[in-house]
Amino acid sequence: MNESRGDGTLTILLYAQDSKGMGHVTRNLTIARHLLAAYPNAVAFIATESPIVDDHLLPERCDYIKLPRRLIPSGVRETHEEAVAGKDHFRDVRSNMLREAALGLAPDLVLVDHEPLGYRGEFRDGLLALKERYPETKFVFGLRDIMDDAGKIRSKWREKGVYDALKNLYDGIAVYGSRSLYDVGNAYGIPSPIQSKLHYCGFVVREPPQADPAAVRFHYGFPQMGPLVVATVGSGVDGYPVLEATEGAVNRIRAKYPDLRAVLVTGPFMPADKQALLQERATAAIRIVQRADNFQLMACADAIVSMGGYNSVYEALVVGRPLVIVPRCTHKVEQRIRAETLAAHDLARWIHPESLSSRRLAEDLEWALSRDREAHARLVREVIPSFDGAANLTAYVGERLGWAPMGGHHGGEPSPMVEPT
Q1: Strand locations in 234-293, DSSP E?
Q2: How far apart are alpha carbons 315 and 123 in whole angstroms?
Q3: Fold of the domain spanning 10-203+386-420
Q4: Side-chain half-sphere of 95: how many Cα atoms within 13 Å?
Q5: CATH 3.40.50.2000 domain residues, the chain
Q6: What is the pairing mode between strands 323-325 and 261-265?
Q7: pLDDT digits (tens, 9 = 90+) for 196-255
Q8: Closest Cα to residue 50, out of 75, 89, 14?
Q9: Which residues have CB under 8 Å from 184's CB, separation 6+?
Q10: Cross-strand pairs, 325
Q11: Residue-level pLDDT at 296
Q12: Within the chain, which residues score under 70 in pLDDT?
């Protein structure tokens, strides 16, 4: 415990690298809830750029540090040099904020998600300054199951000095995944001495909701019988083609499934004109909504269409639903690798965006709707060792820091299938 506080408070600082997305901050909120439930004498702060963190999303004893986005007035046209200079300046602004916040909070634990040194290295100075001033602070890097093409990650980590940080800065590396599905140590060339710090916690998924299919169907004006398809595209920024194809696919197979119904969730950041196009084609059988409790919808669905983001995919799997994935395949291949891996285990079908059509999606939706739900759920449990990543991380942190859990519950009992290296 840092000497700057004598009241017994444990301070946790989490860094979640998100801009318009929701994945990293959602995962960190889940982790914060588990840590705070286990340690009632702890407080947590989440540093993030994400604009979606509201007070009602935060657990008790948790606050967030909003990192500013770089804003450009409409009509302003920057040269390439001006854009680079502007981004570098804003990186310095955020770096200074992170450094001052870290030193001011003097946390007992720093949990950095996805980017070991922060986005574009913005947290490097703060992390190093914190370690120098408060050497008793513990640092844990939270590594998602799949980051990107392994070769690209190795090259980036060499260039940015990440391997050195993993060796000399971090006390532990918590992997939010399963070694049997994706061995990050081998994929990313983590040297053997550092691999001893790896701890596979399992997948970090929110507590599955109590499914209430009758209430969900009533809410959307659907009959109580007949299959239900749910399609989600995360924040929705680039999800329009997936939902457009889903509309077409549902209409194609209605002849075979006359009672088929669908809910398509656009996400908060889908452009308004694209949302309007989807709404124009909405029917009593196909509802279009901007926001919903996606997890609750998935728990009530018979088949799910999703992009390949971490949270969406594993929330679909934890409730045992057949899944059709249309991964994002632009500047990163993370989602494609995840889709390929799960399809290889017969847990999902996947379609490359360049091959996406309502006809192709209809074929894969028929596969999903024809699956035996109980058999599919059993297969999920056989292939994926643990969805208790947040609970297992909490136990790992307690062991690593010597913290004895004090809460009435620990945010979920650690899974016996956790995979230490």
Answers
A1: 261-265, 286-289
A2: 30
A3: Rossmann fold (3.40.50)
A4: 17
A5: 10-203+386-420, 213-383
A6: unpaired
A7: 999 999 999 998 888 889 999 999 999 999 999 999 998 899 999 999 999 999 999 999
A8: 14
A9: 143, 145, 175, 177, 190, 198
A10: 306, 350
A11: 92
A12: 1-6, 18-22, 52-56, 405-421
Alpha helices in 121-271 (DSSP H): 124-133, 150-160, 162-168, 184-187, 192-195, 213-219, 240-252
Domain 213-383 classification at class level = alpha beta
- The DSSP 8-state label assigned to residue 388 in this structure reads B
Two tokens at 16? 């979640």
- Looking at residue 78, what is its pLDDT? 85
**Residue 211: what pLDDT?**
83
Contact 113, 152 (CB under 8 A): no
> Rg of the chain over CA atoms, in angstroms?
22
- Name the helix (H) or strand (E) containing 102: helix 80-105
pTM value is 0.89
Identify the pLDDT of residue 233: 95
Per-residue model confidence (pLDDT) at position 20: 59
Nearest 10 degrees: Cα torsion 401, 406, 407, 412 = 50
